[in-house]
């Protein structure tokens, strides 16, 4: 007996059976809640989960976020005004913070000091007076300042005692508090890296994108320019470009001039990374589809190609920021970068250019500590972002 269904007559319409029930993914492949969570997660969420496993990168990110938040309120955080001079305490060493006095808990305080002059070496010696307890004040009134140069204020997070002193990082040759100047200097040293990398980011994406997408003679010229720039030693090139800036420029113009110099010298590596990526991605089918639909080159590069590896670019830019901070510090240390009254970590380190100063007053090298910590933090953060850029690996 024939059990097969009879074939439809020639020319008769085929019968289709379509289920109107909603598609249930669980019925196709049973998944645990954990598997479903990963399967339905977006790429950003997958990147965050992978980045979160990199503990050093997370700690570095929190540290850098705290620093960049601090530069917004550095006038409030600094114990003294940027230009406050304590002429009775020139080259005063850092003071130690104590909690107990004569076996009793007093709270954070420092002992007062008395200065004596060594007539043989003309060195100032400071002796702690154990009977002079100066309690540290918090959220207090202190030196007046202009918040971002606009709003008058006198509130500080921490202040010395009334008629007391608080030099946690010592003072310089003019009696200025080194810690306060380090906090103010962070605003310049940290922002110059962000502004510089923004300028470098723009040049690298535009030039590298056009070279990788179009190729040909433009790509050849760009590659030769990049090779010439990368073959020149960085320090002499920095010095030459910094020496071009007129000495009559205002500090703000010098700041932007140094930023442009650092951006002009750092775009080459990013441009090559963009070019190599676009050389591979321009052969994809979706690029051909966009070309057939009449999309312009700028739209294809900016809308379809660049977002495909933006995470990689962000990681590359994060690793490049420390180089710009070091560049500004080196130029300012050599006297060819930023100049007073602008304060940066590099300018603070110019106080320690003399060997005799380092021998007698080693605390003037303390501005080197935040430079090291920030560079290490950016490197760890860049490593974490680079690993998280490919969450499927």
From TrEMBL:
PROSITE patterns: ABC_TM1. Pfam families: BPD_transp_1 (PF00528), OppC_N (PF12911). The keyword Transport applies. It is found in: Cell membrane. Signal peptide: none annotated. The chain crosses the membrane at residues 56-78, 188-213, 253-274, 305-325, 360-381. It comes from the Bacteria. GO terms for biological process: transmembrane transport. InterPro entries: MetI-like, MetI-like_sf, OppC_N. SUPFAM superfamilies: MetI-like (SSF161098). Gene3D superfamilies: MetI-like. Residues 186-382 form the ABC transmembrane type-1 domain. It is a multi-pass membrane protein. GO terms for cellular component: plasma membrane. Keywords: Membrane, Transmembrane, Transmembrane helix, Transport. Belongs to the binding-protein-dependent transport system permease family. This is Peptide ABC transporter permease. It comes from Mesorhizobium mediterraneum. The lineage of its organism: Bacteria, Pseudomonadati, Pseudomonadota, Alphaproteobacteria, Hyphomicrobiales.
């Amino acid at each position: 007996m024939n059990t097969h269904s009879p074939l439809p007559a020639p020319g008769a319409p085929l019968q289709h059976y379509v289920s109107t029930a909603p598609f249930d993914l669980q019925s196709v492949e049973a998944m645990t809640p954990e598997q479903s969570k990963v399967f339905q997660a977006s790429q950003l969420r997958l990147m965050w989960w992978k980045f979160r496993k990199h503990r050093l990168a997370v700690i570095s990110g929190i540290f850098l976020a705290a620093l960049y938040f601090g530069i917004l309120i550095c006038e409030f955080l600094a114990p003294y005004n940027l230009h406050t001079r304590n002429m009775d305490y020139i080259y005063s060493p850092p003071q130690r913070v104590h909690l107990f006095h004569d076996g009793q808990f007093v709270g954070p305080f420092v002992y007062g000091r008395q200065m004596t002059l060594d007539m043989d070496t003309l060195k100032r010696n400071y002796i702690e007076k154990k009977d002079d307890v100066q309690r540290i004040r918090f959220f207090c009134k202190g030196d007046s300042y202009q918040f971002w140069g606009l709003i008058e204020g006198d509130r500080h997070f921490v202040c010395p005692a009334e008629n007391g002193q608080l030099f946690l990082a010592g003072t310089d040759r003019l009696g200025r508090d080194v810690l306060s100047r380090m906090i103010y200097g962070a605003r310049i040293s940290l922002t110059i890296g962000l502004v510089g990398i923004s300028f470098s980011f723009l040049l690298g994406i535009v030039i590298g994108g056009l070279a990788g997408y179009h190729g040909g003679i433009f790509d050849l010229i760009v590659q030769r320019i990049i090779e010439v720039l990368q073959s020149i030693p960085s320090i002499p090139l920095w010095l030459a470009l910094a020496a071009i800036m007129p000495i009559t420029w205002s500090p703000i113009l010098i700041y932007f001039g140094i930023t442009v110099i650092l951006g002009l010298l750092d775009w080459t590596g990013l441009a090559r990374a963009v070019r190599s990526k676009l050389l591979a991605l321009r052969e994809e089918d979706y690029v051909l589809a966009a070309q057939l639909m009449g999309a312009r080159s700028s739209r294809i590069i900016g809308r379809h190609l660049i977002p495909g590896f933006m995470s990689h670019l962000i990681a590359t830019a994060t690793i490049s920021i420390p180089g710009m901070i070091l560049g500004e510090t080196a130029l300012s240390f050599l006297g060819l970068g930023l100049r007073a009254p602008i304060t940066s970590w590099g300018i603070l380190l110019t106080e320690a250019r003399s060997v005799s100063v380092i021998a007698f007053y080693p605390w003037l090298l303390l501005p080197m500590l935040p430079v090291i910590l920030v560079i290490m933090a950016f490197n760890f953060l860049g490593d974490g972002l680079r690993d998280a850029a490919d969450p499927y690996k």
